[in-house]
Amino acid sequence: MTGHELLLMAIPAVVGLAGGVLAAVWHPSSTARRLVQHFAAGVVLAALAVELLPEIGREHAPGLVLVGSFAFGALVMFGLKLFTEHLESRPGERTGIDTGLMLATFIDVAMDGFIIGAGFAAGGETGPVLAVGLSVELLFLGLALTSDSTGGWKIVALSGALGATVMLAAILGKLVLGGASPTVIGGALAASAAALLYLVTEELLIEAHEGLEGRETPAATLVLFAGFLAFWAVQLLGRA
Q1: The pTM is what?
Q2: Residue 234 CA to chain centroid, in angstroms?
Q3: DSSP labels for 38-79?
Q4: I need a labelling partner for 183 at 20 to 30 A (CA). Which of 17, 43, 156, 225 fits?
Q5: pLDDT tens digit sequence for 77-105
Q6: pLDDT tens across 183-193, in order?
Q7: Rounded to whole angstroms, how far apart are CA atoms 227 and 34?
Q8: Which pLDDT score is estimated for 93?
Q9: Neighbours of 18 (CB within 10 A)
């Protein structure tokens, strides 16, 4: 593992910490939070469509392996959803911190980090693209902490811990999958694609629409497309 790869893996960690610092001084309205969620969803969709899926095709893994891996990834995320919902039903009593929600968040972030590590193991631009794309999610996560009873330095500390978690998981993913066969890497990326699709549809967008009851604004939809276009434009201009 090179120093350049470690530097790129640190991007989500730094962005996540920055999100915590921002959350400590700025408490966004519910509308602003929904717009951030839509923008993050657009960025993750772009990372999935523009980089991850084409890279899966380039790995030349057998089709049955890719289909089975995607299905396995979907089932893992479904099981993780049930597990985290159980954790979230167990709030902390003395600390004021929702320990169940925090543990569920750390699990989600570790999954994101492993996906980034799988991207670096695949080579090319996949790792850096996923690192940048998922950084937007980490930024939102820092802002999302303002909805809990934590505040001030606690938000910054939690964001730093989440950043460290995503980086360590990325390193682990790179070490575990480094030098693996195209079939193994292709399968890991296919499972990662399912995880990212879950992230967009079952976390970012569902949370963004909670409590709206049909009062969604057209601006949110435009922001989602803006997130997709921003990520795609950066990649296209970078290749020019």
Answers
A1: 0.77
A2: 19
A3: HHHHHHHHHIIIIIIHHHHHHTT--HHHHHHHHHHHHHHHHH
A4: 43
A5: 888 888 877 766 665 544 445 565 667 67
A6: 998 999 899 88
A7: 13
A8: 46
A9: 17
